[in-house]
Write a structure and sequence with these properties.
mainly alpha, 11 helices
Length: 278
């Protein structure tokens, strides 16, 4: 059976990025460096708080805090690595002055996006696997303990990462090299509003609407319910929070796709695809 031309073009772009990692151990090390570093720092911090919890009910609260902190770190890194993996892969095309060549070929814009999504998934999995393994080895922490629902959390964070990354790519198409720094900073800027380590209710009232507009805040609120907080709520699934996260992700992804289509069309008409980054 013959492979469809679109799939061959998408695989060609994915393979081009995978080839960059051959015989380049610094690139491979970079994939796992930050997730592992973050997990180690927060793992030791969580262990400290858990050991200071004392006895009785405080032990249960300390154990729940340990799980919440480590789960938050690992799941948020999923969103960060997905977003950065997609955005940095696009920047690789700009840095190598290859973007104009890519679109002289029969490659379509949606095929480029599909290839970037594929590369981002590979980069995220390669980066997160060592961190998840070390969390289990060093702290006996199993991020999959809440059960299959963890897959729904991860999917929602991955889709959010794609949406943010498409927005970053669109801004790079519009503003050129001046917007490149957003590939590393924009999702970090959303961390305080994403309720990664604390509930949305902790935020000031005037900031809570911002948090509730983010899919990530609903993911982490649902995660804390699934893990439990020392109050016998562990194992429960916050379907309402997951529904909100999924619905917001649909809106975010649709808006990001529309923005990308608009900015790509404008860049092609103005000739920016040939000189972007210069």
């Amino acid at each position: 059976m013959r492979t469809p031309p679109a799939l061959r073009r998408i695989w060609g772009m994915v393979y081009r990025h995978l080839a960059l990692f051959r015989r380049s151990w610094p690139r491979i090390l970079e994939l796992a460096y930050w997730p592992t570093f973050q997990m180690l720092i927060w793992g030791f911090t969580a262990s400290f708080f858990a050991n200071r919890a004392g006895t009785g009910g405080a032990v249960a609260i300390g154990a729940a805090t340990f799980g919440i902190l480590l789960s938050g770190v690992l799941l948020w890194e999923v969103a960060l690595r997905t977003q950065m993996g997609m955005a940095v892969s696009f920047l690789e095309e700009i840095w190598s002055r290859n973007l104009g060549h890519v679109f002289v070929s029969p490659l379509r814009p949606w095929e480029l996006v599909a290839a970037l999504i594929g590369v981002s998934m590979i980069r995220m999995l390669c980066g997160m696997a060592p961190a998840v393994l070390l969390a289990w080895v060093l702290y006996a922490f199993d991020v999959f303990a809440p059960g299959p629902v963890i897959v729904l959390f991860v999917i929602n964070l991955i889709v959010m990462g794609w949406s943010v990354s498409l927005g970053v790519v669109s801004l790079i198409l519009r503003h050129g090299a001046g917007a490149e720094a957003l590939a590393w900073t924009i999702l970090f800027g959303l961390t305080p509003f994403s309720a990664v380590f604390y509930p949305v209710a902790v935020l000031p009232v005037y900031l809570q609407p911002i948090a509730l507009a983010l899919p990530s805040s609903h993911v982490f609120e649902g995660m804390r319910t699934a893990i439990g907080q020392g109050d016998h709520t562990e194992g429960l699934i916050a379907w309402g929070q997951l529904a909100w996260a999924g619905g917001l992700n649909v809106v975010w992804l649709a808006a990001a796709c529309l923005l990308f289509v608009h900015e790509f069309s404008a860049a092609r008409k103005s000739g920016a695809l040939l000189n972007i980054g210069e």
